[in-house]
């Protein structure tokens, strides 16, 4: 690096440390240097558009201080300036929130031209400058930070909320690829207060643009749920046909689409209690025996949505798990006949149960 090159820790690492949270990824900014000098120092360039480098040993990200100016519509409409005379303050100014625009020097001095520390103390998410509108993804990021930091009691500054609403109104959110939308959403679903993400997006008028056809009503999500279950609960009121389209549009990974669609489908097509034939068909359609873990997760979602007890659902599975194919084979069944006999035996096993989910006929 050039002798005058200076390295600063920036972004989430500084923010999380000040909040007393564990620091995951460290991002660094370098001023006073050039891509060539970074390469000479053994850094490895990643991404062609922006001058971002990986440290030869730590593999942490080092970005040259840069200014961005928007040109045209959408995420790709940027020109990027990263001359060595760009000052740290200029780099911090293009960032999304004041709490994400604090830098720290090697010897621990904080550089905070936009008063991010004060906003951290006051629990405010506030945009740094008009550059906020240059990346519509920031609407989702703010919603995600509200969810992640819900237990700290953050709120969004009114002027920032107004900008978020203006971005939603402008149609710019449509320039985000579904993959980027999903990445932020999956990230938000990892937090205990994931519903806050959807509440914020709804409040600023972004939800309908990002999640077409999602029927959303806010609800508290208990801590016990994982990200797949949370997505199922968030989407629980969306008709299954619309939900299938939404999951496909978002490229939601398999487990998200499976749990959400199976739980919604069950609710849409059944009214409890059900007879033993219907239960047997359903248990086999969701691979209750072959895949016990996903099944247990599915029933914990369904038990919650139908306000029934999970133990009754588990009892249905337990009854068919006892039906033994070996015994039927010894009785001379094979091939398609064996399949039929197995099905019949399972139906009979369910019918014998004394279970409030079972319709006695
Ligand atoms: N659309 C974006 C994405 C990132 N940043 C800036 O780049 C930093 C690093 O971004 P990233 O690693 O994506 O997020 P973090 O803030 O570190 O948050 P997380 O803990 O979720 O990774 C942010 O703090 C912020 O200063 C931004 O201004 N606008």
TrEMBL record:
By what name is this protein known?
Answer: tRNA nucleotidyltransferase (CCA-adding enzyme)
**Poly A polymerase head domain sequence ranges:** 7-126
Obligatory cofactor(s): Mg(2+)
Specify the taxonomic lineage: Bacteria, Pseudomonadati, Pseudomonadota, Gammaproteobacteria, Oceanospirillales
Q: Which family is annotated? A: Belongs to the tRNA nucleotidyltransferase/poly(A) polymerase family.
* Iron found in the keyword field: no
Its BP terms in the Gene Ontology are: RNA repair; tRNA 3'-terminal CCA addition
Is GTP-binding there in the keyword field? no
tRNA nucleotidyltransferase/poly(A) polymerase RNA and SrmB- binding domain ranges (all copies): 153-215
List, alphabetically, the InterPro entries matched. Answer: CCA_bact (IPR012006), NT_sf (IPR043519), PolA_pol_head_dom (IPR002646), PolyA_RNA-bd (IPR032828), tRNA_CCA-adding_enzyme (IPR050124)
- What keywords are assigned to this protein? ATP-binding, Magnesium, Metal-binding, Nucleotide-binding, Nucleotidyltransferase, RNA repair, RNA-binding, Transferase, tRNA processing
Cross-referenced Pfam families: PolyA_pol, PolyA_pol_RNAbd
């Amino acid at each position: 690096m050039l002798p005058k090159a200076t390295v600063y820790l920036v972004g989430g690492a500084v923010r999380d440390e000040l909040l007393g949270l564990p620091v995951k990824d460290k991002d660094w900014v370098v001023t006073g240097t050039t891509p060539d000098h970074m390469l000479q120092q053994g850094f490895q360039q990643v991404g062609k558009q922006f001058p971002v480098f990986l440290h030869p040993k730590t593999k942490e990200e080092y970005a040259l201080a840069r200014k961005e100016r928007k040109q045209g519509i959408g995420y790709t409409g940027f020109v990027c300036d990263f001359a060595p005379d760009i000052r740290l303050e200029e780099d911090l100014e293009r960032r999304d929130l004041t709490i994400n625009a604090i830098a720290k020097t090697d010897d621990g001095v904080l550089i905070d031209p936009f008063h991010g520390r004060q906003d951290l103390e006051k629990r405010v998410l506030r945009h740094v400058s008009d550059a906020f509108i240059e990346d519509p993804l920031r609407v989702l990021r703010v919603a995600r930070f509200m969810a992640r930091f819900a237990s700290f009691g953050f709120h969004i500054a009114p002027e920032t909320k107004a900008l978020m609403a203006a971005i939603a109104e402008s149609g710019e959110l449509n320039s985000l690829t579904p993959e980027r939308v999903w990445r932020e959403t999956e990230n938000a679903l990892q937090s205990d207060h994931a519903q806050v993400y959807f509440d914020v997006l709804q409040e600023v008028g972004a939800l309908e643009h990002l999640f077409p056809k999602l029927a959303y009503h806010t609800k508290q999500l208990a801590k016990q749920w994982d990200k797949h279950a949370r997505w199922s609960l968030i989407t629980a009121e969306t008709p299954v046909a619309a939900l299938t389209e939404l999951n496909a549009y978002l490229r939601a990974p398999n487990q998200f689409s499976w749990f959400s669609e199976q739980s919604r489908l069950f609710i849409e097509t059944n009214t409890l209690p059900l007879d033993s034939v219907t239960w047997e068909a359903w248990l086999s359609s969701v691979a209750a025996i072959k895949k016990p873990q996903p099944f247990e997760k599915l029933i914990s979602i369904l038990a919650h949505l139908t306000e029934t007890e999970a133990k009754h659902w588990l009892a249905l599975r337990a009854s068919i798990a006892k039906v033994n194919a070996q015994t039927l084979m010894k009785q001379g069944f094979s091939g398609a006949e064996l399949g039929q006999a197995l099905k019949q035996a399972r139906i009979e096993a369910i019918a014998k149960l004394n279970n409030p989910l079972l319709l006695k006929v």
